[in-house]
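lol ok so funny story. i was supposed to be doing the assay writeup but got distracted and ended up predicting the structure for this chain instead. priorities right. anyway since i did it might as well share w the group, maybe its usefull for someone
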Amino acid sequence: MKRFVIPIFIFVALTFMGAAVAIEEPKYSVIEKTPPFELRSYAPMILAEVQVDGDLDEASSQGFRLIAAYIFGQNQVSEKIAMTVPVAVEEQSSKSTKIAMTAPVNIESNAGQWAVSFVMPSEYTMETLPKPLNSKVKIRQIPAVKRAVVTFSGFYNSQKVAEKTVELEEWMKTKNLQAIGVPKFARYNPPWSLPFMRRNEIMIDVRD
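and the output, tada:
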């Protein structure tokens, strides 16, 4: 069975604007739906990303702090921008602007090293996104992609994430969908949310 990464992030920052504004999600359209499964087509996304070492907790905390510093001011201009959701986690074997926290935040592992990333708000382009002051923060663009997704509520742990991933992979087989990436775990709510109000997802990129 695959090994999975479980995010441990501090969501205190999300309270800062969550009640006041609508929270943006990455743009997508639903191609096919068989609840709780969906096949989605996502628009291109821009990521801010850092590489960090350590165990999961250390990498999650360090990566979060580095990118949070960037989106909350350690860049070339100054401005506040609405936040987005979800936070997503990915494992693989290999003048200041305050930029919104966006979705997803990804963590990828590679020989003990982790790549932690946030998706930038859709109003930005590679040309208009403020440049990071910290050289550890890198900006890259993700092209449009199709993703198979399973949605579930409640609390999560590594076993539940693994079980839901297997369910998603089995559904993909019935639809002849071929994975082209590793599973991503996405959470849309801060950790104090009631279990029945939580939205969690497993996402797997698939071939056209």
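Helices lie at 56-71, 158-174. The two ends are 26 Å apart (CA to CA).
back to the writeup now i swear
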